[in-house]
């Protein structure tokens, strides 16, 4: 399977602020669950007032004509490149087909006059499976509508896109977090993400718990763990923040940052190349459950497109910020 998350931002992530705003029916499982960032789970024997508890969006059995649908407002307008429809744990209740439309709407909930464009025509689905579809459409959209035929349940919907940012709004010298997902930063590679996904560290706000960060397994061999971030655009990094919120007995002892201005293919391996990148931040000690801010320690290396965060020897961090001057 293609990993869209290593190239684009999931703009229907509830963590980033996406909202499921309306649907035809969510009798069995509320539409909001479909946007959860965590992998779907199945809890044997768990029921609620409407029936079996399912981790996703599920409509009731349709007895008349038509089909079910759900409208989601993207966390930020963007150009969509990939769609993932996940039916994990939905076996006898998944929809056999689905399609996805998109629109541009200034308000919250599109109305009956809103024109919709087809992003993904009707596609066959399988139960308990992940389905990925590439999208080739140049326009920027604000909302998507997932249609299921005729009814059933979806565990997760993910819409991978390049966020649309008005870079002209920032005056010269203004510092912008170019690693932030909402600005288009993407974690493209790492050596290990056993306990937590690397994309978590680019989310807004502080982590809500230890699971809302990136954490590696316990290292039993020489070396250190690392993650590479593709910045939203080239910039001169002036300030770095490393947050170890909630990591107490498992935070890294030390961290450092390297950087590169190479125009790399994100699908290629960057491990070997990144080992020799310029040092942006020399190794510094970290503390448990703490926001670390570095300005004077940041070296002048010019404009960069990629950064590599090294943690020594292993452990977990909650968030990483790269505040930089934009290079026009």
Low-confidence stretches: none
| Count of DSSP H/I helices | 1
Give the amount of beta strand, in percent.
35-45%
Number of strands: 22
CATH superfamily (homologous) name of the largest domain: Galactose-binding domain-like
Return the string of H and E elements.
EEEEEEEEEEEEEEEEEHEEEEE
Distance between the termini: 35 Å
Task: Report what the structure shows.
With 328 residues, this protein is an all-beta fold. The chain folds into 2 domains: 160 residues, Jelly Rolls; 158 residues, Galactose-binding domain-like (Jelly Rolls). It contains 1 helix and 22 strands. Strands 1, 2, 6, 7, 8, 9, 10 and 12 form an 8-stranded antiparallel sheet that branches. Strands 13, 14, 16, 17, 18, 19, 20 and 22 form an 8-stranded antiparallel sheet that branches. A two-stranded antiparallel ribbon has the order 3-4. The longest helix has 4 residues. The protein is globular.
Element layout with pairings:
Blueprint: E1 9-10, E2 19-23, E3 47-48, E4 51-52, E5 57-58, E6 68-86, E7 97-103, E8 117-124, E9 130-134, E10 140-149, E11 153-154, E12 156-163, E13 175-177, E14 186-190, E15 214-215, E16 225-243, E17 254-260, H1 271-274, E18 278-285, E19 291-294, E20 304-312, E21 316-317, E22 319-326
Antiparallel strand pairs: 1-12, 2-6, 3-4, 5-11, 6-9, 6-10, 6-12, 7-8, 7-10, 13-22, 14-16, 15-21, 16-19, 16-20, 16-22, 17-18, 17-20
